[in-house]
Amino acid sequence: SEATAPAATGEANKPKEKPIKTPHVLRSNYSYTQFYCEENIYKFIEKVHLQKAIDKRKKEADKKAKVNNASGFDKVFAVFFSSFEHDRKTEIENEWTSVVPMRIHSADRKGIHFQMGKDACVTWDYHVIAVMRDEKTKNWFVADFDTKFPTSPENDLAAEKKSLLIPAVDYFRQTFTFTDLIGRNPPPTRFNPKKLQSTLDTVRVRVVPADVFLTYFRTDRSHMLVKKKGTEYQEPPPTHPIICLLYTSPSPRDS
């Protein structure tokens, strides 16, 4: 829908939204390998989940001691974005067509990388992020290792000292939209913003609770192999072992 100017009273006189205080989760404390977003998020959630268990035990101890020191995240999810559709009868392994356009992202070697003014943008074939809720403030945050979104209000901090987390409301408002670019003359990129916005309508989202994700997620990285070469990767893989362990129980890990 078209944007309308605020009335003389009302929207124009609304007080500015109070900035959301972002928990200081250092990016440098987590492993990252470009183009392996699902594994980056797996290792991130794995570490957060471990801390969650520690916080739970601490909270129980604090309760006994009648101390209120609530901290950490009480809800954590892995979120998948894809526009891939398939018929299981005709599906071909590691072959699919999916487009997920996202704004304020970095992709310095692969992907369809382009600029919109000062904003970097990219279209992935799929993408994975983490979404979590701060137990104390009940605010939601996003962890996305591939975004250029300003993750911390302390812009003078070195990158390794900035928080990895982004307020979810800001992330979704400014990552999945191209409407403000429609109608610009000349177009800001060789891409058609109207088509990009239309493509977003085909993107589907799957939200997976952390304990389920950690229990059932598997990858053999075969989708990143160079076709017809067998063992050569398109991009260097993570140094940690492949997440492809066998399990004997369908029960999720303790949360």
Order of helices and strands: HEEEEEEEHHEH
Mean pLDDT: 75
Query: What is the C-alpha radius of gyration, as a whole number of Å?
Result: 21 Å
Helix content: 10-25%
Q: Determine the number of helices (DSSP H or I, runs of at least 4 residues).
A: 4
Neighbour order of strands in the largest sheet: 7-6-5-1-8
The largest pleated sheet is described as: 5 strands, antiparallel
Query: Low-confidence runs (pLDDT<50, min 5 residues)?
Result: 1-9, 66-70, 246-255
Task: Classify the beta-strand content into a percent band.
Answer: 15-25%
- Which shape, going by the Cα principal axes? globular
Count the strands? Answer: 8
Which structural category fits the helices and strands? alpha+beta
Alpha carbon gap, first and last residue: 42 Å
Question: Any chance you could write out the topology, listing elements then pairs?
Answer:
Elements (H helix, E strand, L loop, with lengths): L36 H28 L8 E10 L17 E4 L8 E5 L2 E6 L1 E9 L5 E4 L21 E3 H8 L17 H8 L3 E6 H7 L39
Antiparallel strand pairs: 1-5, 1-8, 2-4, 3-4, 5-6, 6-7
Q: Can you describe this structure in just a few lines?
A:
The protein has 255 residues and is α+β, with helices and mostly antiparallel strands. The protein has helices at 37-64, 168-175, 193-200, 210-216, and strands at 73-82, 100-103, 112-116, 119-124, 126-134, 140-143, 165-167, 204-209. The model is unreliable at 1-9, 66-70 and 246-255 (pLDDT under 50).
Write out key terms for the chains shown.
255 residues, alpha+beta, five-stranded antiparallel beta sheet, three-stranded antiparallel beta sheet, 20% helix, globular, disordered C terminus
